[in-house]
Amino acid sequence: MKHTGLKAVAAALLAAAGMEAAWAAGTVIVDYQVQAEITGRDQTGRDWRAANEEVLVLPRDPKALTPYSAVQYSSPALQWTFGTGTLGFGGTILNKGASELCLRFDAARISSNVHPEEVPLVVYHDARRTLPDKAKAGDRGKLVSRGTTVPGPRPAFSPNPLCLGPGEQVWVTMGPNLTSIFPTQKMFNVRLENDRLADTGVGNWIKVTVPVEQGEKRETLTVKLTATDSRARVSNY
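User: That's the sequence. What structure does it adopt?
Assistant: Structure tokens below.
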């Protein structure tokens, strides 16, 4: 992959918090506006930062419930439109290369400003859906899901690797166990009192580092998201 320059992108992603908290009409979740930084290390040990043109803030989807937009990282090898929701984080990932691409989520690590030391990524829920092939009438894609989204005591596990053939695109969502990096166990350490935001999480960050394999190449990709704004709302999903 070719990486040049430095880019700290102001973007917005929908993130989940307070799944167990509910207003009378539904479930309270929190949307976040974030600043995103994309960095990594290639197989020679050289550190890189994404070039300005590789990180884009996408126009907000007018059909989306969140008031914020998403950020997309696009290199010659892969395209990842980051997103998080009531189930955790993930997004849409496209293999732009000519050989199989594997994101080793099973070996991913996470950290935060509250807990800068990296810990293994473990999740309560891991779902992947292949996106429909527009060339095939009636193709709705295929969904594979592990774990549960139901709040309460539940087992955590290591997510599976994600391997894509050339041109293949998959939607991914994971509900991470945040116990080790955020005391409130919610994205950006947000805190709710009486179903309202008592701590907005603004200024806090989460970092996800994922080993990437494509052909003979081995790299690590690191996504750092810093909350710059947040809002609570009710969802009836």
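The chain has one domain: 8-235.
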